Amino acid sequence: MMKKVIHIKMFNKLHTFSYKLWFWSGNKCRFFTDYNKSKAIALDNARRALEEAFTPQLAKLLKDGYCEECGYFNGEDKDV
């Protein structure tokens, strides 16, 4: 017996149709807007957390200053 094989053009048409159907239903049910809102909130929270974590270190580096002669920040180990 011969196995049934889906022709590549038919597979592409089926794939395109299913993608369009998925995209249309996602827009109609507003899944994408909910996803975009939650993604924006998560990125904003991550940005604020990183700013809070690194602000003291950056302020200290700027306060210490940069040494033009040796190329290191003052207060940084020169052995590393």
Kindly describe this structure.
- This protein has a domain at about 30-80.
- The mean pLDDT is about 80.
- The termini are far apart.
- It is built from two helices and no strands.
- With about 80 residues, the chain is an all-alpha fold.
Which tags fit this structure?
mainly alpha; 2 helices; 80 residues
Which SSEs are present, and which pair or pack?
Blueprint: H1 8-28, H2 31-64
Helix content: 55-70%
Order of helices and strands: HH
Structural class: mainly alpha
Main sheet: strands, sense, barrel: none
Q: Give the helix tally.
A: 2
Mean pLDDT: 78
Number of strands: 0
Low-confidence stretches: none
Strand content: under 5%
Distance, first to last CA: 71 Å
Multimeric status of the protein: single chain
What spatial form do the alpha-carbon principal axes imply? elongated
Q: Over the alpha carbons, how many angstroms does the gyration radius reach?
A: 28 Å
State the gist of this model.
The protein is mostly helical and 80 residues long. It has helices at 8-28, 31-64.
